[in-house]
């Protein structure tokens, strides 16, 4: 052990601290009146904090000599700091106050209890003569905060502390009236005082309120500090332990906001709206509360345009922020929230889209409209925050109003085009979903899916050359908001018609109106204007939560589409990392890695919430997670290892099914349509044809009420095929209706067949019955349209259509086998050729524009297919009969023979 | 922190024997709230803040009683429009949902006592209710189970737009539905007098499985840990039943893994502790038993009364400062007249103080700023001017802005508008 002199034992020698401190005091700390460079100050500060020079906490055995030496040096430190504080030089005073604040934080309990009142007086006197130096006053405020924070830890000193707090308030109120950093720090000190010693403020309640109100409503304060003021204003009601003060405060604020809006929204909304909200706020018969902010002259004598920009909007924003804080913090008593008025106000602001409501209104000029539109985003933004806070604060109590909120959100999605707005709406949607669960997801399902898909899919077109054509198709369809409704309502044939040629013509228009950035598909160049990354991330998060909360809800309408979209996005985000980054402008702090993470999170949610044992794209997903895991040291890697763990359950089916299994085949059969097509997706995915095909097939499964689209997509010529299939199918509509059910049955079988290969042999016999039936049924259409038949063979493109047609499970063999060998050869070529240009979605869409020749050529194939299900025996026996067929139907096999 | 939260076992009978409360750890009877005579599933703890019990009809009144944890007598009595057979509260304790003998469902707001909505749900008595998020599942004497979306039910416009008032209507049970339990993952298990329990998927709206039992099942509770549920039979046995099935097993009987057997008479109600280690059962023989689910042994036995025990609950009373409780209204207020009340309850434990900003941080911040930008601290000779430059700048700036505004204004004024 060393002493006050001589060598130290090591770094941990306790004697180091007093010696270091002595050094600091004697050599590095400036004398009153002199200065020291900032870097030196920083190093002093660091030494104090890392070594704990002021703590006087001796570890190990008590060493009186050491303790005394240390106390002496700390005494010297305190003395020197005191000299600095008392100095005439403003710099020294500033520095001294600052170091005093550090001392409060660092010194030992005994020392603090001993001398806190001295210190308090010193700082208070500093505060009171505020005239001297701004910076010194500012620092006095922070030091005072530190003092109170430390003092609050001494429960026995509570009485003294509150009396101190009471003495601070008066000078603080004076400081509040100043501007700039002084008021900023003063409000922070006030906040500390309100939090720690609320009762000390009781006497000054009204004064404080009007002082803050004046600040909030004055045009000079910048946004950040005006929010700070608003936060303190929101805390004020906790000073008085009564329900009334909170209610009065929020009532006054809401009335204030409402009145400001009355002026702002003249002509842009129905005139009575303001009065209606007023009625909600002040029930008839009650006296209105005093005007918020008292007799403050609103905005002074500024010109109206300037007043709106500089005063009205910032004030509304600050007041809204105040409401947010009031709604989300806790008060000592139960308080009543005027939810209805709040929601009415939210509705009022959020549904103003800037269009002139009453054109005849004389005082609304285009200039004024321009002005309001300019400021609307910031207004909307603060009210979205308010909505967020309302949901957060009310939790399940919002239930009686939840339907209103849902309607508001749905409507607002149509207005929100700016990235910031969309991101915020998405976050509100996420909040609603998590707070209200399944019931809420039922109501928000459609709006989330349609908007998120609209926002997300451009990326997958943009980047995923491999997946090209069909993702675009997904987009086209999904970007029409009411896709699910529409499909359900329209008869199938009509629908297929609409999604055919007409659709190609309609969709650009539709896309323009529905979502801001979904214009692509027809021309790849159009994909240039992509949705900003932050919006995409928000959309992904919303989808993730939707899947988490209500992933198994009404799956047949949306799951297939969303699952496909998510895997595509995750792949594109992970695969084409750098390239992607270049093509997308990063907005703010969001980067491609955030996007990647969000996409993988959503993908995991899609897997985990899948209502079926095996999610369709599980293998691909696991591969992505594996690769992500390798990026060690990133959040992505962390998440990926969690994801793999979570997926472990899915890959090794430990979890037992809730359904009775019974004999395997019937069990699957009764398990509902969505199950079947998911299973189908899985099995097909494994096919060697690759992703393009997978997408095609899966997309068609999701359109299972749309039999004819299946064919279209498979051929990549939607318009063309739809057109002709429609012509044909009109003659036999009920046949068309039969197709989906039939396909499904087959699809199941595919899976069964692939999984339980041993069964194959046993069921081989029925195949023969199938093959027998096939020729019979494929003939009639052929005879119906004999003229077309010749066209069929020579056209290379049409030849392709046939095998692809037959790729769906049914009767592959019978159809393909009669084809001439050269045709098969051509077929192969064509297929390989098809794979190549798939990178350019535009081209494949151009082809359908000449309808005449190829469309007729398809006639033969499509009727063949449609007629088949007529056969009653087949549909009866489909569960066993078709199984072997499907095995044959594997595209690999059909090209190989 | 106060003594570790006390867990109580509550039990009530259909005869007037009050609500007995035993400390789960010590086994001592803590308090008995009187009077109370309730039918099965008519007692609920409202977010553990207080107790609500719908009374069996006696004479022509069937009130709903509120009890505070520490007061034996009834705190508030409400008189609903018809006898309430089943009563539940939402997890946050904001709403009480009651099922009446006419098949109506009542939805009250606790804070104000307002009856927010009342609708006709079933042809006969509502026997059991369960909540899953915002989905309400109701089972009735008539054998039907209906799933309601509360969001729709509480909003007039949505109600009118909806095709059917309910989300799903299951008619698989042949006889009265006796109990329903919901589980994470939108799974519900229902029991019925037709000697089956059925497992439902609420999200897909279909039955997943039906399990037959040797006796009528009056009560089901789902083990929070695993895929097991307990079914209390009228034969006095508690059947331990597997939720899931092995793919290889085809037969439903295999789902019944075993039985807890100690009661002499039928099991009327079950409750599971949140950790799943304890199971509490109430029986028609007037006894309440606490089971250790691992050893499957009775660890405690409480004698409630001579009459049958109809309700058992495990609660962890939260003794917070409650505002005066409001009695529940009989009829709905005309729409628009009464605003549903939303309150923010005081929440002492979550209101953590964050220390105010520290002057050290400020100092560091300032030093940082000074090292980069023009350092005001460095030219300490003129340090009295600290802050002045910025003030001057602000002044100039505001002057400039005013000038600009003036000119812009003038230009605009000259333009024909």
Provide a short characterization of the protein structure.
The complex is a heterodimer of chains A (897) and B (417). Chain A is built from 42 helices and one strand.
Quickly give the structural class of chain A.
mainly alpha
Number of domains of chain B: 1
Largest interface: A-B, 97 and 84 residues
Helical segment tally of chain B? 4
Q: Averaging pLDDT over every residue of chain A, what do you get?
A: 68
- Low-pLDDT runs of 5+ residues of chain B are 373-390
Category by helix and strand content of chain B:
mainly beta
Q: Report the β-strand fraction of chain B as a percent range.
A: 35-45%
Helix content of chain A: over 70%
State the helix count of chain A: 42
Topology:
The complex is a heterodimer of chains A (897) and B (417).
Chain A: H1 16-28, H2 38-51, H3 64-86, H4 90-106, H5 109-128, H6 134-151, H7 158-176, H8 181-196, H9 205-216, H10 223-235, H11 243-264, H12 273-281, H13 304-328, E1 335-337, H14 339-350, H15 366-394, H16 399-415, H17 419-463, H18 469-478, H19 483-489, H20 492-514, H21 533-550, H22 555-575, H23 577-583, H24 592-608, H25 618-629, H26 635-651, H27 664-669, H28 673-685, H29 691-702, H30 707-715, H31 718-731, H32 733-755, H33 758-784, H34 788-792, H35 796-806, H36 812-816, H37 821-835, H38 841-846, H39 852-857, H40 861-867, H41 872-889, H42 891-896
Helix pairs in contact in A: 1-2, 1-3, 3-4, 4-6, 5-6, 5-7, 6-8, 7-8, 8-10, 9-10, 10-13, 11-12, 11-13, 12-14, 13-15, 14-15, 14-16, 15-17, 16-17, 17-18, 17-21, 17-22, 18-29, 20-30, 20-31, 21-24, 22-24, 22-25, 22-29, 24-25, 24-26, 25-26, 28-29, 28-32, 29-30, 30-31, 32-41, 33-40, 33-41, 35-37
Chain B: E1 8-13, E2 19-23, E3 29-33, E4 43-46, E5 50-54, E6 64-67, E7 76-78, E8 84-89, E9 95-100, E10 104-109, E11 115-120, E12 126-132, E13 135-140, E14 145-149, H1 150-153, H2 156-161, E15 168-170, E16 177-183, E17 187-192, E18 196-201, E19 206-212, E20 217-222, E21 228-233, E22 237-242, E23 256-261, E24 267-272, E25 278-283, E26 287-292, E27 297-303, E28 309-315, E29 342-344, H3 359-372, H4 388-414
